[in-house]
Write a structure and sequence with these properties.
The chain is globular and about 90 Å long. About 4% of the residues have low confidence. The strands form seven sheets. Strands 1-4-5-6-7-8 form a six-stranded mixed β-sheet, with helices on both faces. Strand 9 and strand 10 form a beta hairpin. The protein is of the alpha/beta class. It has 34 helices and 26 strands.
Length: 952
Amino acid sequence: MSSQPEYILEQKLVEQLQQLGHKKVTIRSEADLIRNLKTQLEVHNKKTFSEKEFEKILNHLSKGNVFEKAKTLRDKFHFIKDDGTSEWIEFISQDHWCQNQFQVTNQVAQEGNFKNRYDVTILINGLPLVQIELKRRGLEMKEAFNQINRYHHQSFNSGSGLFSYVQLFIISNGVNTKYYSNNAKQTFKQTFFWSDEHNNNITQLDHFAPAFLEPCHIAKMITKYIVLNETNKILMVLRPYQYYAVEKIVDRVRNTDKNGFVWHTTGSGKTLTSFKASQILKEIPKVEKVVFVVDRKDLDYQTQKEFDAFEKGSVDATENTAHLVKQLSDDTKLIVTTLQKLNTAITKEKHGNKIDKLKDKKVVFIFDECHRSQFGDTHQNIKKYFKNAQMIGFTGTPISEVNSIGKIDGAPATTNRLFEDCLHKYVITDAIRDDNVLKFSVEYVGRYKEKEGSNTYIDTDVEAIDTQELLESPKRLEKIADYLIEEYGRKTHNGTFNAMFCVSSIDVLQKYYDLFQKKKEESKHNLKIATIFSYGTNEESKDATGIYEEPELGMVAEPQAQYGDSHSRNVLERYIGHYNEMFGTNFTTKDSQSFYNYYNDIAKKVRSKEIDLIIVVNMFLTGFDSPQLNTLFVDKNLKYHGLIQAFSRTNRLLGEKKSQGNIVCFRNLKSATDDAVTLFSNKEAIQEIIILPIEDYIELFNSALSSLKIVAPEIDSVNSYQTDEEKFEFITAFREVMRVLNVLKSFADFDFNKLEMTEYEFDGYKSKYLDIWKETKPQGGEGKASILDDVDFELELIHRDEINVSYILSLLANLTDSNLKGDKLEKKKKEIRDILSGDAKLRSKKELIEKFIEENLPHISDGDNVNEEFEKYWNKEKNSAFEKIATEESLNKDRFRDAIDDFLFTSKTPKISDTLKLLEIKPKLTERNNIGRRIIQKVQDFVEVFIDGVAS
């Protein structure tokens, strides 16, 4: 296939970048890069360096990983010149970002484990800070992303490691263009389109270049809008809507005294936006202090970590108001505090006297989640105390007159009334379109029937008579508990993700929790279930005959705990006891700090998927982020911002398998959902936010299947493919079938019989798909470049977590005990072979397991002995494979064993230079690279076959 279109795209881009102000420079090798770096640093610093002086600079620049180099880039460097005098130089001007030296080059070759040639590079002061990879039209951009990932492993850090200074990557196929920060841990989901201020994406490369790659703008993005996250040691770049919001806030504070708010949908990264704004605002001379205000219950462990990652030591997580007063009275510029402590500091006389000096100073308050009712009171108190306070609010669900529940001076308390103008808007439809959050799949489970024979029908009497008595009847609650247990695996992809269940009151929560506990003791499920609530609250009226909407329900924020109610507190104490037993902890409600620690621990365990299901009334329904959570079961009335906030717990991005947030409603919230979507975007947006019904996905599946059948009419058609292009067409066609099937499988009504393809046929195509994947895995030696090199096979859509070696051994144990003979035995063996062929992670072990089935299994009479016999067999085969590699490659066995251990510990691909140290005989210079690559591949294959996925 001709690479001409890619070459033309590259040439045109280089020409365009020159017109924008980047000077063209020819750099073909690292030596050229280093020579040019010396010249450019001399120009930028208006100095000249001797070779010896420049060597000191280069040594300094060579140290560290990507994160450390990002810091080096932003710091000045001090060294002693040849004449003994002291010198400081900078690598990039951050305050005057336009005053740097901008160059563009293309086709720079770098050689590490492999030789790579990079498409287009933007150099600032001689350092490669922006790397652009191009693909021809029609190819998925994910391939360019995968290519850059390959460069991370193969060559970026080679030589002096100057390509580790890259801050931003750009990937484009001409029609679509995205950018992202240099962070090898992220997935393709963390790549972004650039847009204009009104969220219109700029996707064409020739439009993207002047908007994003113009010298002043790209330098501003690097110096001002990349955040160095200290906790995770990664670079994070702001998305366009975050950039525009920060610019608007800074302009507002710099040039006016007016308040303002930013409406950015839940899940769009408000913490990063607001914190970046805080960092820039604190540098404005007339701003005395910036105070970042969050609700006490939102300042959990995760949030503290995030804030501390952006600004070390800014968070005060103690209950002590005195510490806040000290920060307000000393020279601390940026303070992170809670609403509750701020209120105490400015309303209690003993504190107020200490911070009097701030009364007439310009203090900027930034409110996170400013849709909460509590902000009204604090807002008024701040206005009374600080005469020059300027308030900026962030919300994903602003309060309008339609959904307001409070009053200010007799008028409805709305976000506009509190914070004046909306400075920037990025609503849920924008976020879904940009793949920044997922759509929702909403299923209503109850007595009403959406269609005949639907699995969402359970006779719960819900819609018949909507009274509290019926809603809380033991019969209804038990049916719902049974339904949830039955559907849990389907919704969470067999526990790949986890779920939340929100209920109407603490009384109802108690009934559900006890039901689940009882069913667990009866071995009806094995889910790890936890719960938390503010004991003493009374969410729904006990004597109501109809549904009582609690005042805080609209807000989804529980009132302060009334510590006098001993009943709910005793209940929670009992449930915390179960939790302590399950996790070996020691939490209690007997003091507020321990209860708060329990809150933090539950949040951590939900995020790390140690908890399968968390049952709540209101807690965690707002402000709680956990990408692992993909399902919300609902048995309570929600509306407006409360509904959107609760649903949004499920729609954070996480890999290909998480294709939507699942919402399962045991009450008919259809009109409430439509009203909420209409309020926060528009009526037409319902189709954009909520995924289509199953019938539409069946149609999409059958359409994708038709495309597959054009490429491969029969399963065996794949066997006749001669070229990579034919295989590529098959991969893309079958991958689309897999993607749609992944969504279909989460519907309660899914059944393969509804599709125009049997499960047997799907498995046949899947087997061929995995054959091609196996072929494309890199082998030792140079190998020719192929269009399949960077294809993403999205294997997580195939791999099922419950299928592993242990699972296969349990099948073999059952087979041993079954006493099957002849055809029936062969049929069972074939089923096991098909499972081995169909799972990507087991495929590498297929031959060895089949050998065990044929040679060893017939001699085992008791299924209980299968595990032990398999372990003996496996260790024997593993030792034999180890000896074979060591002999074939003349490796020192002890060093080889250590290399495998290192690889298992670090998960990093060994370097060729380290690999060559394993050899007993020194190879010829010309053969070193090929031998090194071959050994690396053998180490990786050995680990994949004998260690990955095999319990010791």
